[in-house]
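Example with several molecule types.
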Amino acid sequence: MATGRTHRPATRSRGIPEATVARLPLYLRALTALSERSVPTVSSEELATAAGVNSAKLRKDFSYLGSYGTRGVGYDVEYLVYQISRELGLTQDWPVAIVGIGNLGAALANYGGFASRGFRVAALIDADPAMAGTPVAGIAVQHTDDLDRIISENGVSIGVITTPPGAAQQVCDRLVAAGVTSILNFAPTVLSVPEGVDVRKVDLSIELQILAFHEQRKAGEDATAEDEGAPPMRATPAGRKGPDGDMPAVMPA
Amino acid sequence: MATGRTHRPATRSRGIPEATVARLPLYLRALTALSERSVPTVSSEELATAAGVNSAKLRKDFSYLGSYGTRGVGYDVEYLVYQISRELGLTQDWPVAIVGIGNLGAALANYGGFASRGFRVAALIDADPAMAGTPVAGIAVQHTDDLDRIISENGVSIGVITTPPGAAQQVCDRLVAAGVTSILNFAPTVLSVPEGVDVRKVDLSIELQILAFHEQRKAGEDATAEDEGAPPMRATPAGRKGPDGDMPAVMPA
DNA sequence: ATGTCTTTGTGAACGCGTGCACAAAGATTG
DNA sequence: CAATCTTTGTGCACGCGTTCACAAAGACAT
Ligand SMILES: NC(=O)c1ccc[n+]([C@@H]2O[C@H](COP(=O)([O-])OP(=O)(O)OC[C@H]3O[C@@H](n4cnc5c(N)ncnc54)[C@H](O)[C@@H]3O)[C@@H](O)[C@H]2O)c1
Ligand SMILES: NC(=O)c1ccc[n+]([C@@H]2O[C@H](COP(=O)([O-])OP(=O)(O)OC[C@H]3O[C@@H](n4cnc5c(N)ncnc54)[C@H](O)[C@@H]3O)[C@@H](O)[C@H]2O)c1
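Resulting structure tokens for the full complex:
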């Protein structure tokens, strides 16, 4: 089966497609809500609506986990909650360390929904000596100097980076060296990590820019005949577009 | 219900693939860094490395914007910064409103990188009367009662929701009614919006769960033999498949 | 038991995204 | 001006993800 290891370490998901894995938490959330309302079973149609996806997609997703439904009835809510939780590894405890306790780091530390699903904030780490010992969300902030020890002692395998961009890579390296193999990065930085380490990023700026793109598009639809493409002035082969960068214009610093 | 031919507003992207749009901010960030270092030109290979993508992908992405490169040389940094900025709609000002000024909302309001790229925090809105007038990040928090007026007066078309999950849909509805057509949702809620309104979500919990999945898989590679704790019990009709042997969930019979 | 009705599970078609590989474009050198 | 070298732009093939559509599985009624 091993079709050679041609630099393809990403798609090694245990049979379950990555896209499906990304939706399981969504289903789990919807199922948990149903569970709290003591709803015994749910059809793929209902659950799909609650999760905001296509019902066929949901059924196919579940088919990767096995056949847990009953034709003519639907899925047993409690049973499915357990199966998905187990598949996602939420039946065990995941100690998490947050590095960079500033605006965002503190907000995350204070976030209640964190611990609600197997994730536990095991440590808060910051480079500012003045913060050492200060309690944030009931947890004393520890200094970066002890990062390695803190990670090891707590068995942390998931790290959250909320430092300024400039420090992100360095912090990442230290986390990895200490044994962290999964990183959630909030800093707008492209992190470089060794194979075997997973990195996911949350980038507010990118999200806003994507929204702006579509927003501009919508605005342009109304005034299609408007001055849509006046500025370009493509540098044609004839005219060299060397350093005389004609009209760079606006530049956000 | 069944064969309801629902419209497909998603693939309305004017020629530019959605995946490409999502990467443009990444390129822009790398290019801005180069620009600040006064680097005149850059090759697709260098830029791709800086942005953390494949060079062929980058070239194809740029090809959707037009042919802005020079063979044998590369791309003019300033020129490309301008082109991408224009394509993303960042040459104009985007007033943004944040609703729900708690831990997260306040952190976002204080976030400097926000305004650095055409986005301006035009208003902070919260339902707590006690917060009205309180300055956060130098901006006075306004009450939800005035939401409609605030959105209109400031020409806000992008709204950020950082309220508790239970209030998200309601807030969303009010924002849309007031004229907002793009929403960035931080609440773990599936928002329902009319056609023409874009919603993007940032979900910390989902990201962590995806990481946990892969983390568990990595751990499982070493030792496949493990003893799961005490799974719920529930007898399945037939002994369907049992690779993991344990059946869970209580049947409320 | 048998029939009907509901809903799952999935085969198959399709479209999108990715990455390879290379011809062409243009810079550069002699 | 011709030869050479560098790097773009893209045709093409492939794999993943999505969706449709339907046979089969099972619940439920008679
Ligand atoms: N605040 C937001 O809403 C927001 C939004 C999107 C992205 N971000 C990104 O998240 C990161 C944090 O943002 P913030 O607003 O909380 O910044 P902040 O300045 O408030 O906090 C950064 C914290 O990191 C600490 N720090 C600096 N270097 C460190 C190091 N080497 N090791 C450990 N800790 C270190 C600082 O002492 C500080 O406490 C930034 O990269 C920012 O771009 C923030
Ligand atoms: N804090 C985090 O790190 C974090 C992480 C992931 C997700 N979230 C989500 O973000 C949201 C906010 O989290 P938080 O920690 O800031 O919560 P919070 O309780 O600190 O803040 C919520 C704020 O929303 C306000 N609010 C409540 N109902 C409102 C309404 N109808 N209209 C306007 N404002 C209203 C409250 O007054 C409060 O100020 C939650 O949905 C949470 O699940 C937070």
